[in-house]
Amino acid sequence: MLAAVVLAALGANAVPGTMQAVALDAPGGVEVMTLRTLPVPTVDAKDVLVEVHSAGVAVWDLQIRNTMQWVKLRFPYVLGSDGSGIVVAVGSGVTRFKAGDAVYGYCWDNPKGGFYAEYVSAPSDCFAKLPKGVPLDAAGALGASGLTALSGVDRALGLKRGDTVLIHGASGAVGTLAVQFAKLRGARVLATASGDEGVALVRRLGADVVIDGRKADILAEARKFAPKGADAVLALAGGDALEKCIDGLRPGGKVAYPNGVEPVPKPREGLAIIPFDALADDRVAQWQQFNQAVEAKRFEVPVAATFSLSDAAAAHKRVEAGRVLGKVVLRIR
Q1: Which of 3, 23, 133, 320 has its CA 20 to 30 A from that of 262?
Q2: pLDDT of 8-61, one tens digit each?
Q3: Does residue 98 share a domain with residue 118?
Q4: What is the predicted pLDDT for the residue at 10?
Q5: How many helical (H) and strand (E) elements, i.e. helices and strands, does the chain have?
Q6: What confidence score (pLDDT) does residue 21 get?
Q7: Same domain for 122 and 175?
Q8: Cis omega (within 30 of 0) for bond into 263
Q9: Tally of domains in the chain
Q10: Based on the domain organization, do 130 and 208 belong to the same domain?
């Protein structure tokens, strides 16, 4: 309840009773998403209320919209698992944040609604303070993709200095961040990207070798890159091209993929196939580690396109069209 929170210095009147949000009442095509007026979500003792500045548009948003897969069925359903903004209220049990803090966050299937809205209320461990060097606009694209990328590099693969890794699907939302984290850990990176622009982007982000996954001989390039076989593959897309990446691994190598990648990598004798999720058990510690990694270098969050909240349908169409270099975001304010 709002009575149980510490409100912004401007007072309770600074938080309106209603907000604009994109919601759906049934699964379906982009036409089921409508801009409407909804109540500003309530704030419990461990929650923070954030005035949303920008929200990420993820590929899984399209699947949820189409089928309500992976989420609890309830309507109206407000999409959006990550975004950025300014804290306007904190619950009585929250000590990590105060009103006025710039934050970004990731909250999967939040029962109080997602980030396609002017306000979002969620448990405080879903958020972190904005890392130095990352603008509030770009931070809307950072939470889900960034945590997924770092979880793959650190928790799933344990990349270290001198390791060789093939990052398949490196020009997408997760891949562009994973390349930077892998280089931060000292790994040598061969990346597959989509199209000439994708290759140029991933090369700029620091990959040692970048190839167009649709045109190049992936296995030949992998063997040239790591003649004795690469140590690891980070699989951010499935299919035949991924299997060619895996052919380039050494015996005992690792393949990691975030849950949701389809088709999943085929089992291989002598290789570890490791599925993983974005979130660790201790989310506060994970956010601290994540911010340290982002602030350790000149980190770039590629934004492929920006749409207004009222143009959420157009944003979904852009993601559906494919070849998105980085991530699509909604600018709420």
Answers
A1: 23
A2: 434 445 899 999 999 999 999 999 999 999 999 999 999 999 999 999 999 999
A3: yes
A4: 40
A5: 9, 17
A6: 98
A7: no
A8: yes
A9: 2
A10: no
Handedness of CA 104, 294, 319, 263 (dihedral sign): negative
- Quick one: which H or E segment has residue 271? none
Would 292 be classed as within a structural domain? Answer: no
Asked whether the beta carbons of 128 and 85 are under 8 A apart, the reply is: no
Q: How far is CA 22 from the centre of its chain?
A: 20
Q: Dihedrals φ, ψ of 77, to 5°?
A: -105, 120
Q: Kindly give, in sequence order, each residue whose CB lies less than 8 Å from that of residue 197, ignoring residues fewer than 6 positions away.
A: 325
Query: Is 289 inside a domain boundary?
Result: no
258 prior amide bond cis, ω within 30: no
> What pLDDT, on the 0 to 100 scale, is given for residue 1?
43
The enclosing domain of 183 has a CATH number of 3.40.50.720
216 secondary structure, DSSP code: S
To which residue do tokens 């970048």 refer? 210
In terms of domains, do 106 and 187 share one?
no
For the beta carbon of residue 60, count every other beta carbon within 10 angstroms.
Answer: 15
Residue 45 lies in a domain: yes
Q: Are residues 159 and 239 in the same domain?
A: yes
Burial class (CB in 10 A: 0-12, 13-18, 19+), 9: exposed
- What's the per-residue H, E or C state across 91-158? ECCCCCCCCCCEEEEECCCCCCCCCCECEEEEEHHHEEECCCCCCHHHHCCCHHHHHHHHHHHHHHCC
DSSP 314: H
Amino acid in the structure at residue 222: A
Give the CATH number of the domain where residue 73 resides: 3.90.180.10
Distance between CA atoms of 152 and 250, rounded to whole angstroms?
19
Cα–Cα distance for residue pair 92/44, rounded to 1 Å: 8
Structure tokens at 108: 């999967």
- Are 193 and 233 in a shared domain? yes
HSE of 92 in the Cβ direction (CA atoms, 13 Å)? 6
Distance between CA 235 and CA 256 in Å, rounded?
A: 6
Tell me: do 163 and 109 sit in the same domain: no
Residue range of the domain that includes 207: 145-276
SS3 6: strand
